[in-house]
Amino acid sequence: MISRRVAVLVCGMLLVAGIGRAQGNGASGGTFEALSPGFWKVFDRGARLEVMGSGFGFTEGPVWSADGFLYVSDEEKNAIFRLYPDGRREMVIALGDPDGSAYDGERRLIVCASVLRAIIRLSEDGKSYEVLADRFEGKRFNSPNDVVMGPDGALYFTDPTLDLVAGEKKELVFQGVFRLGQTGKVTLLNTDLEQPNGLAFSPDGRFLYVDDTERKNIWRYRFSEDGTVSDGVVFGDERVAGSKGVPDGMKVDTKGNLYVVGPGGIWVWSAAGEHLGTLKVPQQPANLAWGGTGNGTLFITAGSAVYRIETKAVGFVEHGRRSLTVGRMGKR
């Protein structure tokens, strides 16, 4: 996710111009910018963007729990919280600059820990953690940013320098995309991107999408059963003149549509690479997650708040059913 140090608030009521663009109203300052009729297959015109929780520092890493709450990372307050639908929240663990999160195959929470420069796994009660990986070929990661479970049960994560701790040395000469296998082995998949950030797999497991914060575009790679990627192509571009918003977290739905953080809100892309439209959000988003009844609720972390909106889509959250067993590097 984009560092809080470079995040900016972007008004959700941006002026829109151009033929074929249609807008609808949300709530809490949210608006729709439809660029294709396909956008209304995802959102109802009367859908309401609601504030689920506020008063955070900088929200990140949302993950829905079947127990009826949302895990939320707060990069400024250095903690992970449980946020409930009524707005109530409770701290799970104090952790320096937690970022993107996901579940492993046993529904344990995996977190990108920027200060630790590591991928960690929380204990069942959330009060302790294990470091799963913090080095590649003996060199420390930069600042692991986002993580997702792959079709093969392995963890895939990005490692830009967006949250590299001030004063600490960069040890790797690249910003990479990595695979953390079931044996604990870390494999470098790609060094093509300047600042790899959000990532997601297509529902059929054929493709891995990764966005590049620096270049403000989205890449698609062909994914193989052996856990490698190839044939990278630019899938979409999210450059907007005059905007400091950038591609960040991303998710997919069961139809293969991508929901990618971009300038001003959540950009919705078809599986064919068409920008269907944008859900504008009052504060510049950083990440998002599916959850709620039937996985039809989209939760959005943006600045000091967490938003939610009901959709017509069904979020895809099924990869990684097999458990991930990795070697323990240490318990805190």
What would the CATH topology be? Neuraminidase
**CATH class value:** Mainly Beta
Structural class, by secondary structure, is mainly beta
Secondary structure tally: strands: 28
Question: What integer is the average pLDDT?
Answer: 89
Helix content: under 10%
Q: Approximately how much beta-strand content do the residues carry? A: 35-45%
Number of DSSP helical runs: 0
Count of individual domains? 1
Regions with pLDDT < 50 over 5+ consecutive residues?
A: 3-27, 321-332
Distance between the termini: 24 Å
Largest sheet: 6 strands, antiparallel
What's the CATH H-level superfamily name? TolB, C-terminal domain
Which radius of gyration do the C-alpha atoms yield? 18 Å
Strand order of the largest sheet: 1-2-25-24-23-22
| Cα shape | globular
- Which H/E pattern describes the elements? EEEEEEEEEEEEEEEEEEEEEEEEEEEE
* CATH-level-2 architecture: 6 Propeller
